[in-house]
From TrEMBL:
InterPro entries for this protein: Beta-barrel_RND_2, BSH_CzcB-like, MdtA-like_C, RND_pump_MFP
Keyword Coiled coil in annotation: yes
Domain called CusB-like beta-barrel: residue spans: 240-311
Residues making up the signal peptide according to the UniProt record: none
Domain CzcB-like barrel-sandwich hybrid residues, every copy: 100-233
Keyword Heme part of the UniProt annotation: no
Name of the protein: RND family efflux transporter MFP subunit
One of the record's GO molecular function terms: efflux transmembrane transporter activity
SUPFAM superfamilies: HlyD-like secretion proteins (SSF111369)
Pfam families: Beta-barrel_RND_2, BSH_CzcB, RND-MFP_C
Coiled-coil residues: 132-197
Any one Gene Ontology cellular component term annotated for this protein: efflux pump complex
Amino acid sequence: MNYETTLSSSLDSDLVVDNAERNRRRRNIALIVAAILAVAGGAYYFFGSSTAAPTDADKAGQAQTVTVVAPGRDSVVRAINATGTLAARREIPVGVVGEGGRVLQVYVDAGAWVRQGQVLVSVDSSVQTQQAAALEAQIGVARADLQLAQNELERAMQLVERGFISKADVDRKTATRDAARARVNVANAQLAETRARNARLDVRAPVSGYVLERKVEPGQTVSAGSGILFRIAKDGELELQAKLSEDDLGQIAVGIPATVTPVGTDRAFNGSIWQIAPMIDAQSRQGMARIALPFDTALRPGGFASVEIKAGAMTAPVLPESAVQTGREGSFVYIVGKDNKVKQRPVKVGSVTANGLIIEQGLDGTERVVLYAGGFLNPGETINPKLLKKQ
């Protein structure tokens, strides 16, 4: 009885072990099948789906949205911006004209207005004054000799009629009278020359104008080799000397208005072009445009200033700076075609206005131009354009 019970228990235990083993194998098989199905599904997704070309709707759904604008054409004033140096329109250097001497007094300083002929510097002329006095005395002597010779000639003319003296004596007395008269003329000329030289000792203003610079002091000895003592802006007229490129020079003419702003101030001064250089510098490929300006103490010759020249009105597209890109070959923009693909279009950029950059060449204004994010696009890329209405 005990043997049968033991055998029955042993059989039951083996049966339980077999069932557990079968269940474990079933689970393993199920997991393997599930893994195979997952791999097959992924392979189909990646390889099977790639064989089918995406539709236009798929592309539109995946393309990034980009803001575009149709610039049109605006009437704008073409402005040329440049920089230059302020200067006197006609700067007159003033130096010693006469023989010079010791400076007694200087009557003007830099920043003063002078009139033509005004004495700027007086020079010691004591020696020259004595020389002039000596010449005046010589004139007196010469006139006395002339009077004596004239009287003797008149008496001789009376005696020759009576036969007391010969005709030859009269001729000699006539020659003596003429020589005395010549000596008087020589003395007068020498005195006039001395007086002219003495008048040139003082330094005078050759023109009326504004004194820019003074380089002389009382007690200084000056001469013809002393150099420049004063610089005068004739009539106080000033100018801006702006260097422009060949292209810009071709766009301007004499009389065109310009606005000048000196460095260090917000004041703007209105002027106009009065001269355009007839030559171009071979090194810099630039030429000079000279802009006449009215006198003002804020305009200091030698200073730096910027200028905006109104070069006439034109009709052209105007774009914000964000729409214009710069590459190795120059400026360009991205335009959007009918298929919503971007294309690179080279453009020529003009001057800057309050509304943006003037596009002189490359656009007619009807294109859809990428307004922002142009630096993140590539030619041929498909986008979803969002048109921004121009205000």
